[in-house]
Amino acid sequence: MPHILDLRRGADLPPFPPPALDESVLVTVRRIIEDVRARGDQALAELTLRHDGADVTGGIRVPDEEVRAATIEPPLERALERMADRLRDLHGRQVPQGWTGERDGIRFGEVVRPLAAVGCYVPGGRAAYPSTALMTAIPARVAGVDRVAVATPPAADGSVAPAVLVAARVAGVDEVYRLGGAQAVAALALGTATVARVDKIVGPGNAWVTAAKRELAGVVGIDGLAGPTELVVVAGPGADPGVVAVDLVAQAEHDPQARAVLLCTDPALARDVERALASEAASSPRGDVVRAALAHAVLAVCDEDRAAGLVDRLAPEHLQVLMPDPEGFLGRVRSFGAAFLGPHTPVSFGDYGVGSNHVLPTMATARFASGLRAADMVTISSFVEASAEGSAAVGPEVELVASAEGLPGHARAAEVRR
Predict the structure, then answer these.
(1) The domain 23-222 is classified under which CATH number: 2.60.40.10, 3.40.190.10, 3.10.490.10, 3.40.50.1980?
(2) For a Cys-Cys bond, which of 223, 280, 350, 367 suits 356, CB 3.0-4.6 Å?
(3) Residue pLDDT, tens place only, 178-190
C-alpha cells in the first residue's frame, strides 16, 4: 500500500516513465502483420486458434442474423440504450461544420467529409466490454461514417459475448468480426477476402494491439496508443476519505499497471485516506489486481498551486477534483483527458457514457491529444477559388515569394493568369 509523501518539504513525485513495448512483442507483431498481409483469412484463422483457442475458419465475420438475434437481460439492454442516447447527444455536439469566406476576390473555405470506413477494436475474450463498442462506434455513426466495423476477440467456442453484439446493434454497426489482438488490427488496416479494410482504427487494447496500431499508423489512421489507465485525484478540506479510497480502488481494479495519484491539500485528509484505502482494498473482489496497482500508487500532500502544476506535468487520463471549488481548480490546469468535478461525480460515470467518452489519452499524451470525438471521424479539406480580379490582385505577391524561394515554375503559374 502507498505511504504519504509530503511535497511541501522539497520532495517530488517519483517518475512515471512511459511503459516501453517489449521488443519480443514488437517482433511477434511484425510477424503477425506480414502473415496477414501475405495469407489473409488463412492467417487470421490460424492466429485466432493459436492465441484465442477459437476455430473461426469460415466464420470470421459474425452473421448479421446472429447480431440481430442476440439477447441479454432487458434491464442491461435498456441501460445500453440509454448510454447510447447520452453518447449520441455528447458526440452530436462535436461534428465540425464547413465554412466559406471571401477576401480580395478570392473565395476560400473548408469542407467536412466523414471517413468512408472506421474499425472499432473492442477488447474481449475473458471479459465483455459492450461500453467500448458504444464508445467507439457511436462517434463514427454520428459523424456520418459510411461503414462501421467492430473486431473483438472470440471466446474459445468462437462466440462473441451477447452484450457486445447487442451494443453493436444499438450503435448501428455494419459488421462484427471474431478477431482480436494484432491480427485484428492487421486485418482492418490491410484488408483480406473477408475483412474489408478501413480508413481508421479506434479503441483500446493490450500491448499487442497497441504495438500493431503503432506499426500500421500511416497505413491506417489510429486514435492513439493506449497505455495503463491513469487517475489523479486532487482533494481538499471537506472531501470524504472513504469516497476517495473507493475511487482510487475503482481505478486500481482495471490493471496491475494502473496508475493512481492522490494530491491532498489537507494533511489530515491524506492520513484518513491512507487508512480507508487499506480497508477498501482488503474488501475488493479484485484484491490481487488492486494491491498490485496500489503498490506503485502515490498519496501526496501539497498546496493547491503545486497540485495544479503536477496535474499538468502528469497530464492524466482521468482527473478527479474534490476541492471546495472544483470548477475554479479546473480553470488552473490544461492537460487531462477527462475531468470529474465534485463529490457526486465518480470517474466510472465517464466509463459508462455520462458526459464523456472513455477512449482517452494516456502516458501524458493529454499534453497534446484529446479523447475520442466525433471530429476524429471526419476529414477537413480546404478549397480556394479565385476570380480574375482576385488572381490579378494576389498574383504578383505569389510570384515574388515563389521567386525568392527559387521556384520559377510556381511564379510562372501565377503570372500566366494575370
Answers:
(1) 3.40.50.1980
(2) 350
(3) 999 999 999 999 9
